[in-house]
Amino acid sequence: ATVATMPSKGSRSSSKKAKKSGSNVFDMFSQKQVAEFKDGFQIMDRDRDGVINADDLRAMYEEIGRIVSRNEIDEMLGESDGPLNFTAFLTMFASKSSGEVDDDEVVAKAFRAFEKEPGEIDAEEFRTMLMAFGDKFTAKEFDAILEEVDLDEDTNQIDADALIAMLTAAGAEGEEEGA
Q1: End-to-end alpha carbon distance in the chain
Q2: What are the strands of the beta sheet with 120-122, ordered from one edge?
Q3: pTM confidence score
Q4: pLDDT tier at 100 (50, 70, 90 boundaries)?
Q5: Backbone angles phi, psi at 153, to 5 degrees
Q6: E strands of 90-144, at which residues?
Q7: What are residue 151's DSSP bridge partners?
Q8: Which is more confidently placed, 170 or 58?
Q9: 164 near 108, Cβ under 8 Å?
């Protein structure tokens, strides 16, 4: 009976390990993506010490012909909580790709770029841009956006301020207070 109990204990602890790995940054990407990030990391890690430091970044930028200041390099390295090893590097990409890092100011500036007049975005021009550039929207996706925004049907203008408030933390906090 003792022999039968031991394997079940072993499998129990391994299932606990499996559950813990759900918060692992490596689980957020496919194996192919992790391999691509690893390749990129190794290209940047010029001295091959497993950590990207200021000298590594400077050399990489020089290679592509861009001059960066010490301040810019310090700012980039400051985005990591500690030494910029591969796990920290991957964590930074994970947080960027999940949108956590987009400041409200960045979101606001992005939408302000579409304004012709302060606070107004022409719906037809906005449709054209969203369907033609970047991660292209379909007509159906754009129509779904129009259902959610304040649109003046007489002028065909989207209320940019309301749109930005809807997409930023400031707008979300206001909704929570009203609920």
Answers
A1: 58
A2: 115-117, 120-122, 157-159, 151-152
A3: 0.45
A4: low
A5: -70, -20
A6: 115-117, 120-122
A7: 158
A8: 58
A9: yes
